[in-house]
Design goal:
The complex is a heterodimer of chains A (382) and B (575). Chain A has 382 residues and is mainly α. Chain A contains 15 helices and 4 strands. Chain A has a 4-stranded mixed β-sheet, sandwiched between helices. Chain B has 4 domains: 218 residues, Rossmann fold; 81 residues, Alpha-Beta Plaits (2-Layer Sandwich), CATH 3.30.70; 158 residues, Rossmann fold (3-Layer(aba) Sandwich), CATH 3.40.50; 66 residues, no CATH class. Classes of the chains: A mainly alpha (382), B alpha/beta (575).
């Protein structure tokens, strides 16, 4: 604590202001900073917002109705009516098998010849065959589950209409809370903001410090009366503001252009983002104490900051479905805490118990990273 | 004796990754009101010493005391006393002159009226008033250097450390810088100027001569140079090939050093030796000795005590090419534009077989651009480049087979071993099997690369890197050799050894084209062109160019005098 106090006492606001001003001029003049800070975030946002879609959308499925009865056709209508399927009617099994092999359809449904006859039995044990393309397990599972759901839904409605007892099964009706339309964009966007903050915070800062070493300007700075604290603050402050600016642009585009709902408060957003930016900037500066050329700095930043934010933050890959050792690793990367916070803010609102726990963890990682950076930053070259 | 401003006391510095010490047991004192030169080839330890004095490094043993302050314990207080201009000047290229200046003024606490006065004083000193709103990156090398100096001078430092300020700067700007430094020195500032150019040493008041981390001499340069008085001569009116005469001179035991100077040969004798017999050297009936002034470089060679070899085993490998007087390299109205910048502007020249042709000019003059067009690495915007009559635009690879190319900084694969480099480059030029093994073996023997075969190219001493690069360029026995700044930064003995090789392959009929910013090196050329701002401003033999520049101020102009004179004249004609 004493050390921190001493470091802060030695700060000359004039020098700090001069360094921050210089940094700001450079941000606006350097094309690569502009690209990383302003253009890249928007590109990523649009890729994650429109380019990647984890919803299944309209899947092409084949449908063969062997039973000519009215009931069979009524059941088939529940597929035709679905917004998740584009139904390709067929006339024979061979035709369907061929189309599935060719990849033209993702699966097919056969309503067997004795469908309506079997249906008359008290246990409603009519057969519907569902064949799916196992090479895409997620789609296959979706087709299967939907068919099952469609069958049960249709059956219970039919029985209700006929005044019969409901079938013996439990009626499973999935309902998504917080993201009621279950659109992947609504949780991908908050995730991609994490990625963008990581790029601005870690990649950009490690690059600009490495550039100072490469061009020999760092040596000139070190030989001046500038202190270590001033040097660090002069990198933290401008890039923190830049990161917050990128954040606000991203949130504005997400909410007003892409129509992603935001249910939290701006205050909570700024709080969690500030804490996350501290960790990202800390990591960027820590990298730059070790890597003194831009190429190596970029490599390390991509591997230590960008990829973990993508893989381990839970924004694309569900953390709870990872193997235990990997799940343990995810705790090391602050990205996961920030993703949780953002998804909470976007989809649920200011749920302080969740936010506070994650904020605390972010604060802890940020403090550790910045302390390490301060420890490794020397005012000497050897 | 004036009080010492800087006191070096048994100063040593070594780095964890290197066995050899960067600096060993240096003791010296530096006084105010003088320019002290830190002189030595690349790798001698100049930059390390500069950084130690700037408080950017910690001595391994020994100490540095500046005005009673220790460089480690009192490093904070020292920063107010010391102005430091690192290599490459330490400027922000994307800030304007004024913004760079303001930043350093803020950092050094020069504010208010004081800043306005400083600003005015330094702008006047450096003549940058017209350029305050220009980006530093858009300044010429000379102007960058002046701005770097101005920034280092803010806050009235008493010690000014300038690390290789003469690199990358044209000769005119270099002279202006010296004038400024002289003015500063008269205000009782101590200026420490590091340089690898031995001719700059002569301009200093005091020098610390460094080689391999050891101090060879400390004192007035004139004192060292005067030891050589009576030992420096020129052999004039030589008949026949002066390169062959040079070989015969160098093998004489009395001779310490000999180099070609235009049509003459400059000879330095060993201590207490007599001039060798001219008939023995076979320099022709009219050849005669003339006594000349010693240079600092002579003294450096004398202190080192090493002698460059006179014979090159490299040439013995080569067969004689016919001396048919054919034009082998030709540039016709070559022009290269990068955007609206004209790097090479309507350049034409011809090179005849067996000739050394030089492009001489400061960094950024357009030498390398011209050079790259001549070996087919760059497409000219307009004009033609011909090598042995082959147009490089249409059949570059056919022409390239006939030429060897040694790029700036040697362009070796640093992570490959010496042997792997040799195998790669010989393979790239189409050698294989027994022939390849034989050529690689030859090069290893000729350049004494045996002990380094398994070392990575990066770990080689500079001189060996240069040898390896030459070996890589020569294995396919090219008729034409392109050398781009081949001896930048190497020590004078290695530089002479290199030229011994080049001279001897030229004797076999190989044609050499070389770029250099070393004015002295130009003397080795048969003919040369002075390049400045993309244009050839003069061409001819070294003696012709010097004769052109002769005037009252310089009755015996050096190559540098000639260069400056010709640039100035060209400038007047242009306006």
């Amino acid at each position: 604590m004493n050390k921190t106090k001493r470091a802060l006492q030695g700060i000359s606001w004039r020098r700090l202001r001069a360094l921050c001003y210089k940094e700001t001029l450079q941000i606006f003049r350097d094309p690569s900073s502009n690209l990383i800070a302003f253009v890249l975030p928007l590109i990523m946002l649009f890729i994650f917002g429109y380019g990647i879609n984890l919803d299944s959308g309209a899947i092409r499925v084949g449908l063969l109705i062997e039973d000519k009865s009215q009931e069979a056709h009524r059941f088939a209508d529940s597929f035709y009516g679905s917004r998740y399927f584009t139904v390709v009617p067929a006339h024979s099994r061979q035709e369907l098998e061929q189309e599935l092999t060719d990849g033209k359809i993702r699966g097919f449904i056969v309503i067997a010849q004795d469908f309506s006859r079997d249906l008359q039995r008290p246990e409603n044990s009519a057969q519907v065959q569902v064949v799916t393309d196992g090479s895409e397990p997620e789609l296959a599972a979706f087709v299967e589950n939907y068919s099952r759901g469609a069958w049960q839904g249709w059956l219970s409605q039919r029985n209700l209409a006929l005044g019969l007892a409901a079938p013996g099964q439990v009626d499973v009706e999935p309902r998504y809370w917080f993201n009621s339309s279950a659109e992947s964009r609504n949780y991908l966007i908050p995730g991609s903001i994490t990625l963008i903050m990581t790029v601005v915070g870690a990649l950009l800062t490690s690059l600009v410090v490495a550039r100072e070493w490469e061009r020999g300007t760092m040596e000139a700075l070190l030989a001046s009366p500038v202190t270590r604290t001033e040097l660090l603050l002069a990198k933290l402050i401008p890039y923190y503001l830049l990161g917050i600016f990128s954040l606000l642009v991203c949130v504005a585009v997400a909410v007003f252009v892409m129509g992603v709902p935001f249910r939290g408060s701006i205050f909570a957003l700024l709080l969690v983002s500030t804490l996350f930016l501290l960790t990202a900037l800390g990591l960027g500066l820590l990298i730059s104490t070790a890597m003194k050329n831009q190429f190596n700095a970029a490599q390390l930043a991509l591997n230590l900051a960008f990829l973990p934010s993508l893989m381990f933050s839970g924004f694309i890959y569900e953390i709870s479905s990872m193997p235990a050792p990997i799940r343990a690793v995810t705790y090391l990367f602050p990205g996961r805490y920030f993703v949780t916070c953002l998804q909470t803010l976007f989809q649920a609102g200011d749920l302080w118990p969740i936010l506070l726990r994650n904020c605390l963890l972010l604060l802890l990682s940020g403090t550790i990273l910045i302390a390490l950076t301060a420890h490794f930053t020397r005012k000497r070259l050897d | 004796m004036p009080e010492a401003l800087v006191q070096l006391d048994h100063l040593s510095k070594s780095f964890p990754k290197s066995e050899k010490a960067a600096l060993e047991e240096l003791s010296a004192r530096i006084v105010a009101g003088k320019v002290t030169g830190l002189v030595g080839p690349d790798g001698a330890g100049k930059t390390t010493l500069m950084r130690l004095m700037a408080g950017l490094m910690q001595p391994s043993t020994g100490s540095i005391t500046i005005k009673g302050l220790d460089s480690v314990r009192d490093s904070v207080a020292l920063r107010e006393l010391v102005g430091y201009m690192p290599q490459k000047f330490g400027l922000y290229e994307d800030l304007t002159v004024e913004e760079n200046f303001n930043l350093h003024a803020d950092l050094r606490g020069v504010v208010g009226r004081d800043r306005d006065q400083e600003f005015e004083r330094l702008l006047r000193l450096t003549d940058l008033t017209r350029f305050t709103s220009r980006m530093a990156g858009k300044l010429s090398g000379g102007m960058k250097q002046k701005l770097g100096l101005a920034c280092a001078l803010l806050g009235h430092p008493q010690i000014l450390l300038l690390d290789e300020p003469g690199v990358g700067v044209d000769p005119i700007s270099r002279r202006e810088l010296w004038k400024m430094v002289r003015e500063l020195v008269s205000q009782e500032i101590a200026v420490i100027w590091s340089t690898a150019y031995l001719d700059e040493a002569e301009l200093c008041d005091e020098v610390l001569l460094l080689s391999d981390g050891k101090m060879l001499f400390n004192g007035e340069p004139g004192e060292l140079t005067s030891r050589m008085r009576g030992r420096c001569f020129q052999i004039r009116e030589i008949e026949g090939s002066r390169r062959q005469v040079l070989t015969r001179v160098l093998v004489c035991p009395e001779v310490l050093d000999a180099v070609i100077q235009g049509q003459s040969i400059r000879v330095v004798l060993r201590r207490d030796s007599d001039k060798p017999d001219l008939t023995k050297i076979d320099a022709g009936a009219h050849a005669n000795w003339a006594s000349i002034e010693p240079r600092f470089e002579d003294a450096f060679l004398d202190v080192l005590g090493e002698k460059p070899p006179g014979k090159s085993p490299l040439a013995e490998q080569l067969t004689n090419l016919p001396r048919d007087g054919a034009t082998v390299i030709e540039a016709k109205n070559l022009t290269k534009r990068f955007g609206d910048f004209v790097a090479t502007d309507n350049v034409s020249f011809q090179v005849i077989r067996g000739e050394i042709f030089g492009l001489l000019g400061p960094n950024g003059a357009g030498k390398s651009t011209t050079f790259k067009m001549m070996c087919g690495l760059l497409q000219p915007t307009s004009g033609t480049a011909l090598v042995t009559g082959i147009d490089l635009k249409t059949s570059a690879s056919e022409a390239r087979q006939k030429l060897g190319y040694m790029a700036q900084k040697f362009s070796l694969y640093g992570n490959l071993t010496v042997h792997q480099n040799l195998m790669f480059f010989s393979g790239a030029y189409g050698l294989d099997g027994k022939e390849q093994a034989e050529e690689v073996g030859n090069m290893v023997r000729i350049f004494h690369l045996d002990p380094y075969l398994k070392s990575s190219a990066d770990s080689l001493p500079l001189g060996f890197k240069q040898r390896l690069a030459l070996a890589c360029a020569m294995m396919h026995r090219p008729d034409i050799l392109f050398l781009d700044e081949p001896t930048s930064g190497v020590d004078p003995v290695t530089r002479r050894e290199f030229w011994t090789h080049i001279n001897s392959v030229v004797e076999k009929g190989v044609t050499v084209m070389v770029t250099t910013h070393f004015m002295d090196e130009a003397e080795y050329c048969d003919r040369m062109a002075l390049v400045f701002r993309g244009r050839i401003i003069a061409a001819g033999t070294p003696d012709e160019l010097k004769a052109k520049a002769r005037n009252e101020a310089h009755p015996e102009p050096s190559m540098e005098d000639a260069f400056i004179e010709l640039i100035t004249r060209d400038h007047h004609e242009q306006n």
